[in-house]
Here is the input.
Amino acid sequence: MNTSNKIIPLHTANMIDDEASIWLVRLDNGNLSEQSRKELKTWLSVDKRHPIALRAMTDIWDDMDEVLMLINDDSSKNISFGSLLKPIFQPVMLAASVSFLAIIIWLAMPTNMNMQKNSYATLIGQQITTTFDDGSIIHLNTNSRIETQFSDEKRIIKLIKGEALFEVAHDPNRPFIVYAGDRLVQAIGTKFVIHLKSENIQVTVTDGKVKMSKVALNTKLTDIEELNNTTIKKDDVYIAKGEKVIVVTDQVPKLTRIKPESIKRELSWIDGKLIFVNEELFDVIQEINRYVDIEIVLKDPSLHKTKISGRFNLEDSEALIEAIEISFNMKSQQLGSNKILLTKKI
Here is the structure.
């Protein structure tokens, strides 16, 4: 491998912003343990950029407008934020941060006792698995985020970005519905994957069956109703085990059959792997870029359609680049802190 241009480790260029976003999600959930509180205090104090990044994250967090209005309410002046804030605010001077105060006030507001709301997010290259109270399991892939809203009547999940695998616990009295882009996907006792991309939405069913229906963008989770499985409207589609649907905006959903071995490859990220079988090098590079905090650029267009097969460990980005270099007689060149250029050796 080109030793003069060492591949940088994961999570470097945007590490602080990524860490701030994860802390914000944990604050949003409102269930920090004492140990987590200590870790947050330490994180905020070790680098002056940390509180700045956290404040910046609050400015782009969803559903903050109404909360920010509370800051101007005289009654909010008497709100006590607990012992966590004193040791955090004093050393890092966060008391003047309106946005950060808004998060705390939001968490202090009473909620419907029958409604459980949570947020989950992953960094680039990270995967997490979470089991809900109903027994359903979610596997969240790299650089992804969801919001959940569970009540006695329904289970709603909004996939805001990225990819997730859902293993749904059967409960006929509480429909399980995922909202992604302009589509609702309702489980009918099933296991399925949704990948929300900039250009399309992809739904793959690995077990059972789901129904997909179109919905208006930016629909509130509280306004989402159970889909009627006895009728089929325009743009509705049923997706069964071993089927995949790709939806492009304003186009008819495209349904295809997918082989079990292909599904296994698509889900290899759950085990921390990427598996490719006779796939174009350009597509492989695009997929790899989802999992590393650097952009890998393939300079020579003549190599784009070159076929490649292999199994890669997501935890070892350097070995992955090295394998491509050796296989295709290429060399890597680091450009700045977050870009790697692959070129043909002369």
